[in-house]
């Protein structure tokens, strides 16, 4: 129950008082009891008790009326700690995985957490035991309207309210409710629940990602255009368990904002999120580091996608949106151009094990060290499927690929597969993915051979930002390595070299573990680089070794998707001309080959 409702209830019983009188009494109650012990609502409960008004009994009567008559809608703002036999209708915002707990009597309990909302507020829901299975049993998805009956309300340690189900509780779902539409209260048979209240859909309450800078609070719903390749990495969570985190950059109407989803629940993540698609993220909160703003979500956060080719100049920024079938991924025919494996050495650092003749082996017979190895293949779409995407290149992540039999991959091999998901330019394969070597693979049968590789080389003048490319170029300058101070205060290494083809010059840039691949290059050498990411140049600052303690350096620049600052040369060491629009960034999966 919110402050306004409690004050209104008190004034109904004490018309001799004003709203200001009641609030002043509440402030005095908070002062006399002490800071940190009472919320304003809690103080109002005590004020009501002093005045002989039983707020809890009045609210309980209202709840009972709502349960007995479906014509009365109980808003989430009217809930209070201790309420029982509560029935609410709300729309689902977040869905968490089921967790299991052991009871003292040796039995186990199941818990599924949800976050639901109506037009006034959002609230956490704990679905216990049989109710925890309702999500799968009823096919509940983010954005669906559900009705929870005969539940009870408790407070968390932080004072926030939580709806809990008990043995007599029930959960109902609408028969079908798109996450982007409004819906009146309905039950699972399609007949009206009688609330007569429209609860706005997720997309209706979503705000542009540019607008979050001035906001606080949890459970925000935002939209933006995916403008960077989503990066998924492994980390140890606070329980010491291995988990996944995804980071992506979304473009809003006015700015870009990084979105980080911790403890990824793949059931909440769209299987296909193309670059330049419109993305909706539900259930995130604002994180600030100085002036820098990020949005952070967790295992309950939802990531949906609608394809969109960019913003328009009209007021309707999302005009002409085409729906993406985010749950369907069909058979893909791919040709492997290069393979790279990155594994931990004895110091816990990454070492590159790529080569022109690398053969990657994945399967149950792999060595034990492969469990700590990340495996990548740079691939192109093969055969007639290429169409207008003739220069499209993808990163094939095969780190999680496991099969009962051995699958051997080599460069120039042609394969077919059904991915587990495609995020940006990365195709993911896992133990559930179908993968097979094509019978027509190889130059003898396929008639493509090395010619296919040359077809896929891009000219530097044709690159576009945040896309993956293979280029062939001449090294034009000696590599230069600098030590730089990053935003987080860490000292890192950065290498760059100027390369060019017959269309344009560009800087090839590497960070930290990839610096050695640039250091080995020599002037006049011809190289072929597979898997570089084009990034637009920015005005940045280099910090030389002899200036490393100068606090005026290393404070500018943005961080790229690897979490390192983009820092470029100062004017006296600029190796490039103004025609150098893009930089070509080396990633851990990039393969550089020397051509004789």
Number of helices: 9
Q: Provide the β-strand percentage band.
A: 35-45%
Outline the low-pLDDT stretches: 176-194, 308-324, 344-353, 355-371, 442-451, 539-579
The level-1 CATH class of the largest domain: Mainly Beta
Count of spatially separate domains: 5
The CATH architecture name of the largest domain reads Beta Barrel
- The end-to-end distance, rounded to whole angstroms, is 75 Å
Please state the CA-atom Rg, rounded to the nearest Å.
29 Å
GO molecular function: DNA binding
Biased composition (Low complexity): 354-371, 568-580
Keywords: DNA-binding
Protein name: Putative RPA-like protein
Question: Explain this structure to me?
Answer:
InterPro entries: NA-bd_OB-fold, SOSS-B. The protein is mainly beta and 596 residues long. The protein folds into five domains: 1-53, no CATH class; 57-199, OB fold (Dihydrolipoamide Acetyltransferase, E2P) (Beta Barrel), CATH 2.40.50; 207-307, Beta Barrel (OB fold (Dihydrolipoamide Acetyltransferase, E2P)); 332-454, no CATH class; 457-595, Beta Barrel (OB fold (Dihydrolipoamide Acetyltransferase, E2P)), CATH 2.40.50. Helices cover 13% and strands 37% of the residues. Strands 15, 19, 20, 22, 23, 25, 26, 27 and 28 form a nine-stranded mixed sheet that branches. Strands 1-3-4-6-5 form a five-stranded mixed beta barrel. It has a five-stranded mixed barrel with strand order 11-13-14-17-16. Strand 26 (421-423) and strand 27 (426-428) form a beta hairpin. Helix 2 crosses helix 3. The longest helix is centred in the N-terminal third of the chain and has 15 residues, at 19-33. The relative contact order is 0.07. The model is unreliable at 176-194, 308-324, 344-353, 355-371, 442-451 and 539-579 (pLDDT under 50).
């Amino acid at each position: 129950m919110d402050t306004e409702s409690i004050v209104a209830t008190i004034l109904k019983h004490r018309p001799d008082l004003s709203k200001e009188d009641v609030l002043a009494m509440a402030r005095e109650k908070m002062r006399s009891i002490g800071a940190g012990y009472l919320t304003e609502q809690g103080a109002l409960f005590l004020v009501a008790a002093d005045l002989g008004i039983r707020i809890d009994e009045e609210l309980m009567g209202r709840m009972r009326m709502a349960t007995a008559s479906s014509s009365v809608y109980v808003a989430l703002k009217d809930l209070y700690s201790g309420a029982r036999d509560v029935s609410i209708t709300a729309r689902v915002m977040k869905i968490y995985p089921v967790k299991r707990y052991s009871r003292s009597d040796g039995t186990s309990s199941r818990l599924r957490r949800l976050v639901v909302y109506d037009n006034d507020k959002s609230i956490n829901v704990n679905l216990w035991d049989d109710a925890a299975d309702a999500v799968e049993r009823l096919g509940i998805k983010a954005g669906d309207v559900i009705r929870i009956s005969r539940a009870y309300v408790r407070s968390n340690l932080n004072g926030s309210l939580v709806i809990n189900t008990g043995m007599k509780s029930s959960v109902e779902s609408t028969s079908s409710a798109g996450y982007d539409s409004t819906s009146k209260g309905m039950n699972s048979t399609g007949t009206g629940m009688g609330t007569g209240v429209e609860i706005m859909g997720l997309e209706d309450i979503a705000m542009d990602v540019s607008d979050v800078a001035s906001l606080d609070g949890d459970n925000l719903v935002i939209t933006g255009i995916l403008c960077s390749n989503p990066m998924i990495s492994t980390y140890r969570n606070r329980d010491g368990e291995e988990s996944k985190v995804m980071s992506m950059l979304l473009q809003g109407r006015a700015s870009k904002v990084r979105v980080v989803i911790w403890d990824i629940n793949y059931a909440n993540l769209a299987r296909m999120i193309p670059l330049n698609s419109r993305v909706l993220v539900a259930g995130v909160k604002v994180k600030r580091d100085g002036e820098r703003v990020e949005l952070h979500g967790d295992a309950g956060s939802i990531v949906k996608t609608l394809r969109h080719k960019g913003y328009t100049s009209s007021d309707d920024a999302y005009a002409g949106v085409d729906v993406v079938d985010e749950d369907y991924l069909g058979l893909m025919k791919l040709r492997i151009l290069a393979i790279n494996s990155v594994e931990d050495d004895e110091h816990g650092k990454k070492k590159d094990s790529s080569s022109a003749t690398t053969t990657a082996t994945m399967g149950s017979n792999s060595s034990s060290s492969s469990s700590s190895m990340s495996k990548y293949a740079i691939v192109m779409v093969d055969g007639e499927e290429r169409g207008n995407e003739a220069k499209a290149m993808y990163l094939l992540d095969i780190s999680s690929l496991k099969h009962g039999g051995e699958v051997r991959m080599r460069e120039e091999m042609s394969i077919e597969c059904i991915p587990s998901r495609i995020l940006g330019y990365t195709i993911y394969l896992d133990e559930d993915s179908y993968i097979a070597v094509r019978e027509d693979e190889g130059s003898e049968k396929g008639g493509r051979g090395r010619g296919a590789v040359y077809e896929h080389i891009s000219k530097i003048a044709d690159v576009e930002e945040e896309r993956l490319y293979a280029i062939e170029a001449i090294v034009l300058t000696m590599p230069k390595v600098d030590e730089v101070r990053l935003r987080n205060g860490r000292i890192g290494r950065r290498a760059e070299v100027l390369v060019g083809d017959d269309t344009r010059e560009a800087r090839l840039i590497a960070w930290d573990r990839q610096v050695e691949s640039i250091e080995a290059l020599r002037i006049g050498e011809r190289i072929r680089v597979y898997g570089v990411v084009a990034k637009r140049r920015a005005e940045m600052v280099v910090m030389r070794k002899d200036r490393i303690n100068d606090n005026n350096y290393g404070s500018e620049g943005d961080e790229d998707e690897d979490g390192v600052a983009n820092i470029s040369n100062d004017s006296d060491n600029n190796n490039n001309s103004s025609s150098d629009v893009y930089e070509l960034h080396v990633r851990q999966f990039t393969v550089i080959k020397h051509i004789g």
